[in-house]
Amino acid sequence: MRLDNFLLRTFRDVPKSRVYRIIRSGEVRLNRGRAKPGTRLTEADEIRLPPVRQRDRPGPGRPPDALLKRVERALIAETDDYLVFNKPPGLAVHAGTGLRFGLIEVLRALRPGEFVELVHRLDRQTSGCLLVARSRAALDGLRAALNDVSSSKRYLALVDGRWRHGAVEVDAPLSRDNERSGERMVEVDPRSGRTSLSWFEPKTAFTDATLMSVAIRTGRTHQIRVHAAYKGHPVVGDDKYGANTVATRWRERGLRRMFLHAAELQIDYDGCRLVFEADLPADLQRVLERLDAAE
Q1: 25: how many CB neighbours lie within 10 A of its CB?
Q2: How far apart are the first and last CA of the chain?
Q3: Contact of 178 with 184, CB cutoff 8 Å
Q4: Which residues contact 87 (CB under 8 A, 6 or more apart)?
Q5: What CA–CA distance (Å, rounded) separates 140 from 119?
Q6: CB atoms within 10 A of CB 186
Q7: Residues whose CB falls within 8 Å of the CB of residue 33, separated by 6 or more in sequence, listed in order
Q8: Beta strands 272-277 and 260-269: pairing type?
Q9: What letter does residue 99 receive in the DSSP assignment?
Q10: What are the pLDDT tens digits along the chain (295 aa)?
Q11: Which secondary structure element, helix H or strand E, spans residue 109, and what is its range?
C-alpha cells in the first residue's frame, strides 16, 4: 500500500489536503526518515504518526427526497440477484470527501435492511450502466463474471478533434503511482504500468469532434480518459487529462461535464448471457444535436 493511502485510511476524518501536508512537512516519519506520498510500505516498516485532531463524524442523515427519486428513476432492471441503474451524471457511486451521499447510500435508504453492494464503479461525471448486487453470493458471482474475459463493457465518448486513427486497439500500460500538484494522476507507463487495453472505433465525425465507441478489455482507473488523451484526442470536458482551455471551450458550448457514458454491459452469469443497455442522457444528446457533421 502507498503511504498516502495508508494515512488517508488511518485519518479518515482529516481533510485530504491536511494529510498530504503532514507528509510533505516531514511530520510523518517512515523508518525514522522522510518519505514521499507514493512510497510503498512493507510489512516491517515503522511509521511515526503526528498527533492530528480529527473532526467528529456526523451521521449521514436521510438523503433529500429529490435525490431518492432521482435514483429510483434511474433503475432499469431488477431481479432477486441484482439491480441495474443508468447512473445519473454528477452522482458519485458512494459517499466520500465532501459528499454525504452516493448512489449506494441513497439505495440503502430506499431499501433499509436489504443487502445492496456495488459490483463495480463509475466516475462521478460518468453516466450509464451500473450493476448492484442484492446478496453476498450474487456479489461474488457478478464480480467474477465481470472479471471474466467473456465480459464486455462499451462506452460512448466524444473526443476532441477529428479522430485520425480509424478503429484501433490502444495497448498502453497504466500506472497510478504518479502525483501532480498533490493530485493523483494515471499515466501511461510502459515499464511498470499494468496491462490496459481499449478498442476505439469512430461512430460519427463532426467538424471538431468525434463520437467514439470504446470497448475496454481491462478496467483500470480512468482508462478511457488516459488512452484517449494518449492518442491525442482527450475526452471533451475532461479537465484532468485534457487541456483546461479545451474544457472551457466545451463548457461555453453547453457541455457541463465530461462526455463519457457507459452504454452497454454484457456478462455471462448463472448460465445466461446478460446484456444491459443505458440510453444516452439528455444533456449529452443535446450537445451532439448542436454539433455540425463533418463533410
Answers
A1: 10
A2: 51
A3: yes
A4: 74, 93, 103, 122, 126, 127, 128, 129, 130, 262, 278
A5: 8
A6: 21
A7: none
A8: antiparallel
A9: B
A10: 899 999 888 888 788 888 898 899 999 999 989 999 999 999 889 999 988 876 655 556 789 999 999 999 999 999 999 999 999 999 999 987 678 899 999 999 999 999 999 999 999 999 999 999 999 999 999 999 999 999 999 999 999 999 999 999 999 999 987 777 667 889 999 998 999 999 999 999 999 999 999 999 888 999 999 999 999 999 999 989 988 888 888 988 889 899 999 999 999 999 999 999 999 999 999 999 999 887 6
A11: helix 103-110
For residues 126 and 224, the answer to whether their CB atoms sit within 8 Å is no
Q: Report the C-alpha gap between 107 and 83 in whole angstroms.
A: 10
Q: For residue 214, how far is the Cα from the chain centroid?
A: 15
Distance of CA 62 to the CA centre of its chain: 25
Question: Catalytic residue positions?
Answer: 123
Comparing CA positions, the residue from 11, 115, 103, 8 lying closest to residue 53 is 11
CB 105 within 8 A of CB 62: no
Strands (E), 35-182: 47-48, 75-78, 82-87, 117-118, 127-133, 152-160, 168-171, 174-180
What's the chain's Rg over C-alpha atoms? Answer: 21
CA–CA distance, 30 with 217 (Å, rounded to integer): 38
Max CA separation in the chain (angstroms):
65
Q: What angle do CA 129, 130, 133 make, to 5 degrees?
A: 140
**Residue type present at position 199:** W
Q: Where are the alpha helices (DSSP H) in 223-262?
A: 223-230, 244-252
**H/E segment holding residue 262:** strand 260-269
